[in-house]
TrEMBL record:
Pfam families for the chain: HTH_IclR (PF09339), IclR_C (PF01614)
Protein name, per record: Transcriptional regulator, IclR family
Organism: Brevibacterium casei CIP 102111
Disordered as annotated region, ranges: 258-281
Low complexity bias spans: 258-273
Amino acid sequence: MMENLDLRAVPSTFIQSIDRALIIQKILRDSVPLHLQEICARTSLSPSTCHRILQMLVYRDFATQLDDRRYTVGPAVTAPLPVSDDLDALQESARPRMDRLAEEVGETCHLMVRTGSTVRVLVSSPGSLEPRVGSRENAVLPAATTSGGLALLAQMPDEWLIRVFYLQQAGRSSPVNEHFPTAADFQRTMERIRRDGFAQVSGLTERGVDAFGIALRGAEAVAPVALSVAAPTVRAATLSSSVTREAILRCAAEIEEQAPQTQGQAQAGTQAGIRTEPQPR
């Protein structure tokens, strides 16, 4: 049994499984990366119990397993999130519009905000078609592996993208290196997204999943926000159809109308420069 040094009274609603997960989370937060056996030694839990808890923490981004199999705190804890009343209001006003979009196109829709080189999913509305992409609400993901994240990164200056984002990842195991072997590859992707006005990816976030994402330029006064629609690769053609893209643009425009805007943003908006006709993959 784990040693309890907390002098506070144990709540009557005490749930052991949650308590164990929280203790492991605190250990990861306050320690260098640890192997499974080291975590077992600190908690007096069996390897099988520790492993099950760690797998759930990794699944929900509260922990990360490194290449050497050690565990450390995950992006759900370390990634900063801009907090403001405007962002909360945008999230709440966007939810019913995202639900309508998911119902209209039949695929799962995400609203995400970029913080540095990661994105956090604020709203995830599940699609009605089966099989469907699962909800990613509250997930923290590398921006370079999501369509919405790439659309937001493309808004950044080249100097930031190459020196801060790409070169910062060099020499480490990262999604950036995996999907973009050279800085030139990454820069070409950014140029294509700027030209097209959207990002469309296949298998970056998850194998067998395609996604289409756009940045909500009318919401820049709140935070760097993007909207994406994700579908199984077998239905990837849906993302390229003019019907789907027009529905995405309508939803984006409705969300932007509710967002605080800086002078001139109301005239710009997301719809400028985005192609709605099918494009070659």
